[in-house]
Amino acid sequence: MFWVGLLVPITYIGVLVGSLATFSSLYRKRKAAKAASLAPWFDPHIPRNVYLSLLHLEPAPGQKSPVVPDSVLRAALLRRATEDIYRVLAIRGAKAALGILVQRGSVGDDLWQRFQRAEQEIEEELRDVVKEANAFSPGWGASIFQTANEMASNAIIRKRVDDIQAQAKAETDWWEKKRSTIQSEFMKELYEGSEDPAASSSTPQKSTTAASTSTAQGGSDEDTVFVEGGGPAAQGAKASAKKKKGKK
Questions:
Q1: What cellular component terms from Gene Ontology apply here (predicted)?
Q2: pTM of the model
Q3: Which of 93, 102, 138, 243 has the greatest number of C-beta atoms within 10 Å?
Q4: Integer Cα distance of 53 and 76 in angstroms
Q5: DSSP state letter for 58
Q6: Residue ranges in the chain modelled with pLDDT below 50
Q7: Domain of 126?
């Protein structure tokens, strides 16, 4: 009776442990399948694919020399390391901001899983590059990424210089167009300003000419009006006019 009573809790514990183990296994498999189905964080690693393709080229039958020289393989490996530098910089720049977004709940866990998988892949990639570099020359693995970093920095600076030069050309064209517009507007205002004094000065001349013409057409001294209070010439003209009236 004692063993029969003890068998029931043991069976219960065994069933519970088995259920938990089954659930854990299924959950891990489902999580791994879901992680494998997620889109990669980076684009395909083209320099790595090129290096592996060159490395695994088989020579033609009867050919003793290698298909690809070591210098080409070294250059391809260095180009692969340069691309790894770009990806490491991208991972470092995005990690802090992505961690804050995950803590706030702004992004889902799928994005965080993609990022973690990208970190693991880049770590394996760096170890593989160091291993390949040491296979070519012992100790080259310790300095290959330093050379690749210099190449990446040079490429970034060259790209920035090209962008600045392109922007400078566009700004120069804009300024030339703006300057021509300002110059044309200034000349137009200057031309209009020079025409106003001429028009104002011609108006008194026209009125004076019209007055003299009307005086000449009258033909008699009686219709002529003299301004009083003038100088000696005005007084003499007034006296001569009176004498002519007396004679008439």
A1: Sec62/Sec63 complex
A2: 0.57
A3: 102
A4: 10
A5: P
A6: 198-235, 237-238, 241, 243-248
A7: 41-55+68-162
